[in-house]
Amino acid sequence: MRYIRFEHEGTIGYGIVEADRVMFMDGSPFAEYSLTGTSMAFGEVTPLSPCEPTKGVCIGLNYRDHAEEVHAAIPTSPVVFIKPSGCVIGPEQQIVYPPLSKRVDFEAELAIVIGRTASKVSEADANSYILGYTCANDVTARDLQPHDGQWTVAKGFDTFLPLGPVITDEVDPTSLVITSRLNGTVCQNSNTRNLIFGCAYLVSYLSHIMTLYPGDVILTGTPSGIGPMQPGDTIEVEIEGVGILRNTVTC
Ligand code: MG
Questions:
Q1: CATH assignment of 2-47, given 3.30.70, 3.30.420, 2.30.30, 1.10.287?
Q2: How many Å apart are CA 197 and CA 167, to the nearest integer?
C-alpha cells in the first residue's frame, strides 16, 4: 500500500495511492479504515506530511560512508536524538531559515513510520509495528550543533522535519537508493544497504527506551554528501520506490 495524508477543499484526510489516483479513506492507516468510494487524481489534492508524529526519533552517524567521510569511528550503539513534533512539515512546504543560524544543512534520510504502539518489542517482531517508510530531511543548523553539547537546538527548529510524500510498505528497506538534490544538483547518492543499524533493530532498541506511538517516525541517519542550503533553494530527497520529497527554503 501507498498511504497519503492530504487536504482537499478544506478537509484533511487519508487515502491510498494507486497509479496516479488517490482513493479516499474513512479513518486512517493507523487505525480501522474503509474506503469511501471517492477517488481523485493525485494532482487534485494537496499532500500533507503523511503522518503526525508525537516525536521524530533520529539516529546519528548510521551510514558507513558518512562515518568514513567525517573520519568517525563506527558507532557500537545507536546515537539517538529527538526532533519535536513542531518540526514537521509536508511536501512542497517551506523550510524556514532561522536567524540564529548561519549554516542550515540538508540530510536525506529514510524514515520508518510506526503503525501501532510499540513498547519493548523484539527485533523479530519489530516489522509488525512498522506501517511503512517515507522520505525525510533531517534539517540541521550545523553551526549550532556543537553549541550546548547536545543537538536539540541545532535539530529542533520549527519546519526542520519535512516528511513525505507517501508512506509505503512496498519496499525492502535494506536496499534502497537514497539521493538528495540541491537545485537539481545531486549531493548525496548512497544506498540503505550502508546502514550500520537496520530498521528492525532500531525499532526494537528504541522501544526499550521509550514507547513509540502510531505515526511516530524514526529517521535512520544520513549518507555522505551533506551540505548547506540558502533561502530560495529547492531541496529534494528521493528514495527508490518511495518517492520525491521536495521543499523550498525561505527566510
Ligand atoms: Mg541526520
A1: 2.30.30
A2: 21
